[in-house]
């Protein structure tokens, strides 16, 4: 189509094609084993798919209520109460969303104005900062240092100013696999107490925690919960990332503002899938068994790279594992990741893409949410390096 040479200013002038798209395209071009993007390559539970089909057959094919099907919101409320001892009213404090990314975008849009500062812990998933900038906000970075990626709470406190409107956290943390401990949450709670700062807690990997640890949701901490949006993902939990369905929980006054944006952003979410999720979630083992399921995959992957030249600290949560390649090459991580795809047919994500000023720690992120045969092929390649 011809252009008429319109003149305009980009609202996101620094945003280019994401590293996920770049790596994914290169992996497909070279037919590489893809351990880059965070999605499983095995099938979801047949029971869940049958429930969706049944909901369609039952006629649930028109708009769901704007906040989501009440039966699903009700079972989410029960789940959060059971797991965290926190009651969120299904009518006014839970909204079904098009995945966690939409929930995060909507919460930021509802509250961030021109010049507001938002603290983001880096490395960070790449959807936070564009949403902040689109709404005129200013991302303020706290860099987490490899290989521990622990939060320096003294440094965090120094970033808090009168302009701080919001903080975004992610636990379990993508890409590092860090989980926030109870002590971390108490530190955060103490620092935000007596402020009007809003917290977004990205908890999409809430049910993928290893080695007997617990997910310390902000819902467990009274003052944090009173100022927080908790964003979660059914796609991550139930191996159906393409369904793009999640939820957001927050106190009534915050959720009221959230829904003002939500109703004009997406209005409502896929109806038959909501009906299916409402029934599927009634069986707790569908999410409580995930820790063991993914720990088996993590342990299989780590056992396989133990004899390689890679260095690692076992991930504490998520289905990602960071591997330090500094004993193999001194190449920049983006260059090494590209060479692995082209020459060795295996795809990963370079972590510099998530860091402030593309800091390069010689670390790549691998997704182990894959079939055993896929992981076995990948491990054969990694041990050749």
What does this structure look like?
This protein is of the alpha/beta class and 385 residues long. It is built from 15 helices and twelve strands. The strands form three sheets. The chain has a seven-stranded mixed sheet, sandwiched between helices. A three-stranded antiparallel sheet has the order 9-12-11. The protein has a two-stranded parallel ribbon with strand order 1-10. The longest helix is centred in the C-terminal third of the chain and has 16 residues. It starts with 18 loop residues before the first helix and ends with a helix.
Largest sheet geometry? 7 strands, mixed
The top level CATH class name of the largest domain: Alpha Beta
N to C succession of SSEs:
HEHHEHEHEHEHEHEHEHHHHEHEEEH
Query: What's the CATH architecture of the largest domain?
Result: 3-Layer(aba) Sandwich
Task: Identify the strand order in the major beta sheet.
Answer: 2-8-7-6-5-3-4
Distance between the termini: 47 Å
CATH topology of the largest domain: Aspartate Aminotransferase, domain 2
Q: Give the % helix.
A: 25-40%
Q: pLDDT below 50 for ≥5 consecutive residues: which ranges?
A: none
Q: How would you describe the shape?
A: globular
Instruction: Report the β-strand fraction as a percent range.
Output: 5-15%
Tally the beta strands.
12
Number of separate structural domains: 2
Number of helices: 15
Tell me the Rg in angstroms. 21 Å
């Amino acid at each position: 189509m011809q252009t008429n040479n319109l003149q305009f200013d980009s609202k996101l002038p620094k945003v280019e094609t994401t590293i996920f798209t770049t790596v994914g395209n290169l992996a497909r071009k070279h037919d590489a084993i893809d351990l880059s993007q965070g999605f499983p390559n095995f099938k979801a539970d047949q029971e869940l798919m049958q429930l969706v089909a049944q909901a369609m057959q039952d006629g649930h094919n028109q708009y769901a209520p704007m906040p989501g099907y009440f039966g699903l919101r009700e079972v989410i409320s029960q789940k959060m109460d059971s797991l965290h001892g926190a009651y969120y009213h299904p009518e006014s404090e839970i909204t079904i969303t098009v995945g966690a990314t939409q929930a995060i975008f909507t919460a930021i849009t509802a509250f961030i104005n021109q010049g507001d500062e938002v603290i983001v812990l880096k490395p960070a998933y790449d959807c936070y900062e564009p949403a902040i900038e689109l709404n005129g906000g200013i991302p303020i970075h706290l860099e987490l240092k490899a290989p521990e990626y622990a939060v320096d709470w003294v440094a965090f406190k120094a970033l808090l100013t009168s302009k701080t409107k919001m903080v975004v956290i992610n636990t379990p943390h993508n890409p590092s696999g860090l989980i926030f401990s109870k002590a971390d949450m108490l530190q955060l709670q103490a620092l935000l107490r007596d402020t009007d700062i809003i917290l977004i807690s990205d908890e999409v990997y809430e049910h993928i925690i290893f080695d007997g640890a617990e997910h310390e949701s902000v819902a467990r901490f009274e003052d944090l919960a009173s100022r927080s949006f908790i964003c979660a993902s059914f796609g991550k939990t139930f191996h159906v990332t393409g369904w793009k369905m999640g939820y957001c929980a927050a106190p009534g006054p915050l959720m009221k503002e959230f829904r003002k944006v939500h109703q004009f952003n997406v209005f409502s979410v896929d109806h038959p899938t909501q009906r299916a999720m409402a029934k599927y979630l009634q069986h707790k083992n569908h999410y409580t068994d995930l820790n063991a399921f993914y720990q088996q995959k993590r342990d299989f992957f780590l056992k396989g790279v133990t004899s390689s030249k890679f260095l690692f600290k076992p991930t504490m949560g998520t289905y990602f594992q960071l591997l330090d390649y500094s004993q193999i090459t001194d190449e920049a991580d983006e260059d090494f990741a590209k060479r692995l795809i082209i020459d060795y047919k295996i795809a990963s994500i370079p972590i510099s893409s998530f860091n402030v000023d593309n800091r390069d720690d010689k670390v790549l992120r691998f997704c182990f949410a894959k079939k055993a045969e896929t992981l076995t092929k990948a491990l054969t390649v990694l041990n050749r390096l």
